[in-house]
Amino acid sequence: MSDQTPAGSSRAIDYIAIEESPRFRTLKRTQRSFIFPLAAFFLIWYFAYVLLAAFATEFMGQRVWGDITVGLLLGLGQFVTTFAITMIYVSFANRKIDPLATEIREELEKAQGQA
Questions:
Q1: What is the mean pLDDT of the chain?
Q2: 45-78 b/e with 16+ CB inside 10 Å = b?
């Protein structure tokens, strides 16, 4: 049986209605309002680094301390930024996204158990 409902069951979960529900839309809006600006920030920062490395070689080659250059510090900053963004997103998701997603999932599981 290709149907997702158990044999003999007349109720199926309307996933389209759930996707269009205000709570699910709030969940998507909350996630997007956080992810898009952060992704834009990171891409601008990344491309600025690449462009500086390509076109501002004197600046990137300036020694800061011993053999440590501006380019090396900015390159290491890329890694630091990546880890920081990950930690910020995990914290945000734990506080804002996961509770709402859990509520929606639990309601779906309950409805599926009753179907």
A1: 89
A2: eeeebeeeeeeeeeebeeeeeeeebbbeebeeee
Measure Cα distances from 90 to 25, 32, 41 in Å: 20, 14, 17
Tokens of residue 33, six digits: 């309002």
Contact 43, 51 (CB under 8 A): no
Strand partners, 65: 68
CA distance 88 to 85: 5
In eight-state DSSP terms, residue 97 is I
Q: What is the mean pLDDT of residues 91-101?
A: 95
Residue 55: which residues within 8 A CB-CB, separation 6 or more?
Answer: none
Give kind and range of the element (H or E) at residue 68.
Answer: strand 68-69
